[in-house]
Automatic annotation (TrEMBL):
It comes from Neisseria subflava NJ9703. It comes from the Bacteria. This is Acetyltransferase, GNAT family. Pfam families: Acetyltransf_CG (PF14542). InterPro entries: Acyl_CoA_acyltransferase, Gcn5-rel_NAT, GNAT_dom, GNAT_YJDJ. GO terms for molecular function: acyltransferase activity, transferring groups other than amino-acyl groups. Residues 1-100, 24-100 form the N-acetyltransferase domain.
Length: 100
């Protein structure tokens, strides 16, 4: 088992799966990530800019696409930012659909 440094863990139900993938925030890497069965299923990354975050990339591994992983990552990041009062912008086209 991998040793992970994480400050927050989110559990959010995916509409397309009966399991609840764990979304982990890795602040030192500026990303939120989902691992499934020990594999990196996807991540969303951000840069810190003017006291807020710019969401700059969302990626889902091919084997995990079409399962709602990207949407789950955006939702977890937005939830965390809201609770911490962090303003968001999105240079990532996918994330920009939700962050506005």
């Amino acid at each position: 088992m991998r040793n992970r440094q994480a400050d927050n863990t989110f559990q959010t139900a995916s509409n397309q799966e009966s399991i609840m993938p764990e979304v982990i925030h890795y602040p030192e890497r500026r990303r939120f990530q989902i691992d499934i069965d020990g594999l990196e299923a996807g991540y969303i990354s951000y840069t810190e800019h003017n006291g807020g975050w710019d969401v700059n990339h969302t990626e889902v591994s091919p084997n995990f696409r079409h399962r709602g992983i990207a949407k789950l990552l955006v939702a977890a990041l937005m939830e965390y930012a809201e609770t911490q009062h962090i303003p968001l912008t999105a240079s990532c086209d996918y994330a920009a659909r939700f962050i506005g």
